[in-house]
Amino acid sequence: MPLGDKKKQIIAFIIAAIILLAILSVVVPTLGKVEEEEEPEEEEYSFVFKNYPVTTRDLDNNEPTIAINPNDHLNMVAGSNDYNTPQGDAWPGYYTTHDGGMTWSEGLIPGYPGDSETTQLSGFKGGGDPVLVCANDGTFYYAGIAFERAINPFNPIGFGLVPGLDNCVFVAKSTNGGDSFDQVVVVWTALHSLVRFNDKEWVAVDPNDSNYVYLVWSIFTGMVTSRLLFSRSTDGGQTWSFPPTTITETNDGEINIQGSAIVVDNDANIHVTWIDFGSNQVRYAKSTNRGGSFSTPVDVSPIDPIPRYLPNGNYRTPTMTMLAVDYSNTNTSGNLYVTWGDYTHGDSDTYLAYSHDNGGSWTGPVRVNNDTEGNGLDQFFPAVAVSTDGLVHVTFYDRRNDVNNTLLEYWWAISFDGGKTFPVNLRISDTSFNGDHSRDGDNDFIGDYTGVVATNDSVVAVWCDTREASESDGDTEIYFVNMPYLEVLEHLDLEALGVEWEYRESGV
Ligand SMILES: [Ca+2]
Ligand SMILES: [Ca+2]
Ligand SMILES: [Ca+2]
Asked: 54, 78 in Cβ contact below 8 A?
């Protein structure tokens, strides 16, 4: 290297060092100031939860259900009555996410009218009553009903379900995280027994053995009396017990039942609840032999069913039970929680009863929504889930923020003491909406229920929402929210609410 170049390098180095010092003398004090200014500022927790649309298509989606893959919480499958079909009639739709609910794919259970694929559902004209569950090995089961339709002779202007036409309950299965449902099996059809209509089924899977799948449903005779039927599969939904077991006994006077729910606990016990609309009681039965037989049904709680149409709404509001069990493998494991809508105080409230001895006895009802009793504002369509630390989460439609008792929001209540009290009530829809915008005109419909599931760190819920619709352009979508509940609880003043709570690791 020539000597002249070295001299130039030294001069250049000195100049660079002077410039660097000059820059530091300006920048360093500035950095210090910025830090001082930012330190005392802490952003307030908003308690606003971002809602995501599950469905996007132009026609109606209602009556949502959701299940979560225990091995991959980013993988969830939701379902709805989906009218986005070639014929425009309802069919069970499924929606799958692999990114925690931010984006969803949309599909229909195979065999829908116009489908090129033939399944056991091919030939039925419509379907619905979607219910999803997921076993611990990640197998998703999807239950629903399918039916034919015709001009109803008893209601000449009505195109609908006709006594004597065939309909069925079915269970479909997905072993690829809900990307497809390749096994679709009809469990029972109306023509099998010449009874008239199978309705409102619910499905459960043994958490530890996905081959054991259980189905309950109502069967109506002449659309007047109904019984609760049960069938089980021991081979992963390929075959089902035949004929079904009757859980309720007409001979005992239980002739008008509906709104059933079923769960399986960690010890393989099966629990079933329903409403007897003859005696107005929430009822319960249990099987300790994997559905071989059931205990004699018992009363859980008296019920005052909410009106078929609540005030200020042209959509029906049936009363059903929803049931959840504690899977924590701690001292609360096996606790049971049943929720329903109740009209005791002259408006609709969310009620709950609990059993802390695995169905041996029940306590309740407890009023879940914490607004003023008898204020004329309605809560309805509750769903219930237990997180793996034993907290009880109930979600429901709520009109408490509209003095006219019309606009709907979706709310979340939490119990820290096994369902005895629900001191935390939070709004989780990020807007309010009008249920009468679900259809053009007055024949509105937002489904018959909503859905919630919980894990060790989150509570996810789905509901039917009309936020993008209007009275002249009715359309509903399924909306989804994921509440990171541990983070939420950190920001609540639980002490002020009288709550003593400490996070409890699940024994799972
Ligand atoms: Ca839609
Ligand atoms: Ca109320
Ligand atoms: Ca309307």
From this structure: yes
Of all ligands present, the nearest one to the C-alpha of 400 is 2
Q: Where along the chain do its domains lie? A: 54-490
Tell me, in angstroms, the distance from the centre of ligand 1 to residue 269's CA.
Answer: 38
Closest CA to 205 of 168, 245, 234, 169: 234
Residue 278 CA to ligand 1 center (angstroms) comes to 36
List the structure tokens of 381: 């369509």
pTM: 0.90
Look at 220 and 109; give whichever has higher pLDDT: 109
Q: Quick one: pLDDT band at residue 32, thresholds 50, 70, 90? A: very low
Residue 447 CA to ligand 3 centre (angstroms): 14
Question: pLDDT tens digits, residue range 385-424?
Answer: 999 999 999 999 999 999 999 999 999 999 999 999 999 9
Closest CA to 154 of 255, 224, 217: 224
Range 54-490 has CATH code 2.120.10.10: yes
Q: How far is the CA of 55 from the centre of ligand 3 (A)?
A: 19
Q: Is the pLDDT of residue 1 over 60?
A: no
Nearest bound ligand to the CA of residue 474: 3
